[in-house]
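Protein modeling request. Please complete all fields; requests missing the sequence field cannot be processed.
Requester role: graduate student
Desired output: 3D structure, token encoding
Chains: 1
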Amino acid sequence: DRLLRVLAAKGAKATFFLIGNKVAADPAAARRIADAGMEVGSHTWEHPNMTTIPAADIPSQLRKATEAITAATGR
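Delivered output (75 residues):
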């Protein structure tokens, strides 16, 4: 919230790359970011090292994060 206030005071916009499981734990925070007019991007579900997890796990990391962000922000 502090960063959102600073950005608003300066008339600046930012892109926030959110971790899906953090969004699921606090959807209101993601909603505040989106409602402040900031861009929201996915930073996977649990921020694994994508070069070391099985390739088959990558789609679910992306899908679950996108679902959590969409549920929280409506976007």
